[in-house]
């Protein structure tokens, strides 16, 4: 077992315990020497993953664990609200519909309702793409703080001033019209429309994306965009009522 695996075992032991645990209990439950348990506990405590509640109590989950739990609960709530609307949109359009979330400099697919028709697309549940290309990415990035946009540009585009200017121009247009549209930016021959999802106080929770082969879009383009935007607004409204 590697040092990283032992460290994770210690974290899981503390985070899943029903009550605070001592270093000795961590050592026994994780199957590691007491000296190793102390070393890993100290590292986790220094990074705020756990807290030392005192000699008589032991160790418990720290601020980072609590923030992770809150984030998980919020994501689960968004998915629970969004899923029925995603299924309805996919059934109505017969196209693929995804729920996206921005994580760092990536756009991550939380859920995907696959089209009954064929579609070759890089997005699938659990996969991510750079937060600089495609409708799914831009519909999220456009509504994130300027500091995040700058970080994405710096990390993904580097010194390419032309690409940076083009992306910032696209984001301005997305904010103005309330949705993003792209064709072939992530996958050749794939068209996509994406709209942001907001909860209370205009908090960005994710994005709703509809994807289809360009050959199937044609005169349906405006209708598909309108349906995507309308569905994202319904999800946002329901989240704000929770």
From TrEMBL:
Keywords: DNA-binding, Transcription, Transcription regulation. Residues 1-63 form the HTH iclR-type domain. This is Helix-turn-helix domain-containing protein. PANTHER family: HELIX-TURN-HELIX TRANSCRIPTIONAL REGULATOR, ICLR FAMILY, HTH-TYPE TRANSCRIPTIONAL REPRESSOR ALLR. GO terms for molecular function: DNA binding; DNA-binding transcription factor activity. Pfam families: HTH_IclR, IclR_C. Residues 64-242 form the IclR-ED domain. The lineage of its organism: Bacteria, Pseudomonadati, Pseudomonadota, Alphaproteobacteria, Hyphomicrobiales. SUPFAM superfamilies: GAF domain-like, Winged helix' DNA-binding domain. It comes from the Bacteria. GO terms for biological process: negative regulation of DNA-templated transcription.
